[in-house]
Amino acid sequence: MAFDIQFAIKTFPKILRAVPVTLFITIFAIMIGLIIGLFIAICRINKVPVLKNIAAIYVSFIRGTPILVQLYVVFYGLPELLAYLHQIRGWNLSSNNIPHMTIVLIAFTLNASAYLSENIRSALSSVDKGQYEAAYSVGMSNFQSLRRIIIPQALVVALPNFSNVFLEITKDTSLAFSVMVVEIMATATVEASSGYKYLETYVDASIIYFIICFVFAKLFVVLENRLSIYKNSNA
Amino acid sequence: MKKIFDVNYIFQSIPSIASALPLTLIIMIGSLFCGLIIGFIVTVMKLNKSTVINSIANGYVAFIRGTPPLLQLFLVFYGLPQVLGSVGIDINDWDKVVFAIITFSLNSGAFLSEIMRSSYLAVDIGQREAALSVGMSNIQMLRRIIIPQAFDVAIPNLGNLVISLLKETSYVFTIGIIDIMGKAKLIGSNGYGVRQLESYIGLALIYWVLCIIIEKSIALYEYKHNNKSKKEIGYNKC
After folding, report:
1. pLDDT of residue B233
2. B81 contacts in A (CB within 8 Å)?
3. Are residues A188 and A108 in the same domain?
4. Among A130, A120, A142, which residue's Cα sits nearest to residue A59?
5. CB neighbourhood size of B30 (10 A)
6. In chain A, what residues touch B181 (CB-CB under 8 Å)?
7. Numbered residues of chain A with Cβ closer than 8 Å to any chain B Cβ
8. Total domain count for chain A?
9. Are A87 and A6 in a shared domain?
10. Which among B145, B159, B153 is positioned nearest to B220, based on CA atoms?
11. Considering B139, B161, B177, which residue would you say is the last residue of a domain?
12. Least CA distance to B189: which residue of chain A?
């Protein structure tokens, strides 16, 4: 059985149609993950008594277990949690018909939040302490010094890691097919099974993933160059 | 109505899940070993001056880094028999574990080549020149001067790679290998699948402990090694 290039070309547009699903999962997880991650990072930087310990354990757990396992824990855990809430609080939440997409979004958001919190934490602490002090000494408020002095510098440090997390999540979304969400990987498998031509569709899928990763990697490099303009202005 | 969540079951499930641990470790260590060889070859190709050899190596690394490991596993599992079958080699009776090791060797080989290259270039060029000027051969220079210094640079990245490799081995259950992930699924589905959540939490605990062990031993090595080399050279601790 040789490589059927006709079939590969024919199925390529069909698999391409699943790209929005993959991008939706990634961008949703990154957006919400950034908010949760920022909260975790602030708790850990300011050493908030109990929250800092919980945050440290949470981050360590998420980083120490495969995303596939986290996906299954949410898959089986969320219905049980809802049933439990129903039992003790009488909340009328249906635990039987949770859309699989919701499960995937929750799992990936939790995953992204842990990685992003580390990213934010290292970027914020990379800004020299003198910069904070200088901002205060010229009379800036807390918010002003963050917005004008700290964040512009921290962003440049954070971007390369942020780009890595983004690409990592994009690639991990291929696991969503194991809980029956139809994204690129699942579409490739479904298309292949009709004629047992797995190699062709998986080659298609890998081309698509490669292009997505390539485009986003380039975008982040452009963004990084733009953000680090201030470094060259008065060196 | 069944009891909603049973903490005891988590701890009951851990020993039987852990019985599949050797397979996970075989896949991980086998891939790491073959990956080192592939990574070394790719690094040599990358440092080569010829543009053709260079771009082959770069293309390979870009492909591996730009596609999900799960997809690579499926490509090897479904694609390799088809490709080799068309030239008359039948590998359909190979064990699935072999396909897993091939995939993760190719995968970690690409990442290892990046680590090797950057740590090789991190060693100051004066070190190379000095080694050559005292009359060492190329291999002597590599073995005695470059590799010991490059290894120290590489160690933190190497630790990260081993941890992500361990986590990626969980994908092999999708092609039907019973590693710890597959075992947890099996155990969870005993008894009409009412204890799925507990067995997956048990599984997560196993992965977590393994990752912490790897992380701590890397940190310990770094700590000891840095102290030792500082003493030998006679640095002051600042």
Report:
1. 53
2. none
3. no
4. A120
5. 17
6. 66, 68-69
7. 1-3, 60-61, 63-70, 72-73, 76-77, 80, 83-84, 87, 171-175, 178, 185, 189, 192, 198-199, 202-203, 205-206, 209-210, 213-214
8. 2
9. no
10. B159
11. B177
12. A76
- Residues B204 and B157 placed together within one structural domain of the fold: no
Q: Does residue B237 have a pLDDT over 60?
A: no
For residue B65, list chain A residues with Cβ-Cβ distance below 8 A: 213
pTM: 0.88
**Is the C-alpha dihedral spanning A4, A9, A14, A18 positive or negative?**
positive
Q: What percent of chain B has pLDDT over 90?
A: 47
* CB-CB under 8 Å, A77 with B70: no
Specify the residue for token string 């292949």. Answer: A192
The burial class, CB within 10 Å (0-12 / 13-18 / 19+), for B213 is: exposed
> Which of B79, B85, B200 is nearest residue A69 as measured by Cβ atoms?
B200
B196 with A72: Cβ contact below 8 A: yes
Q: Which of A196, A195, A175 is nearest to A184 (CA)?
A: A175
Structural domain boundaries enclosing A200: 1-18+182-229
ipTM: 0.86
Give tens-digit pLDDT for B102-139: 999 999 999 999 999 999 888 888 988 899 899 898 88
Give the count of domains, chain B.
2
- How many CA atoms lie less than 13 Å away from A77 in the CB half-sphere? 15
Do B198 and B141 belong to one domain? no
Mean pLDDT of A226-234: 74
Nearest CA in chain B to A206: B67
Give the pLDDT confidence score for residue A196 in this predicted structure. 76
A14 and A32 in a single domain? The answer is no
User: Could you identify the residue written with the tokens 């840095």?
Assistant: B226
| Per-residue pLDDT tens over the stretch B12-30 | 888 888 999 999 999 999 9
Query: B111 is in which domain, residue-wise?
Result: 22-177
Whether A155 and A123 have beta carbons less than 8 Å apart is answered as yes
Instruction: Quote the CA–CA distance of B12 and B200 in Å, as a whole number.
Output: 12
Q: Does the residue A2 lie in any domain?
A: yes
Check which CATH number belongs to the domain holding A90 and give it: 1.10.3720.10
B-chain CB neighbours of A205 within 8 Å are: 71
Q: From the list B66, B68, B85, which residue is nearest A174 (CB)? A: B68
Estimate to the nearest angstrom the gap between the alpha carbon of B206 and the chain centroid.
18
DSSP helix/strand/coil, A183: coil
Residues of B in contact with A213 (CB under 8 A): 65-67
Structure tokens at A151: 């964040």
Q: Do A185 and B71 touch (CB under 8 A)?
A: yes
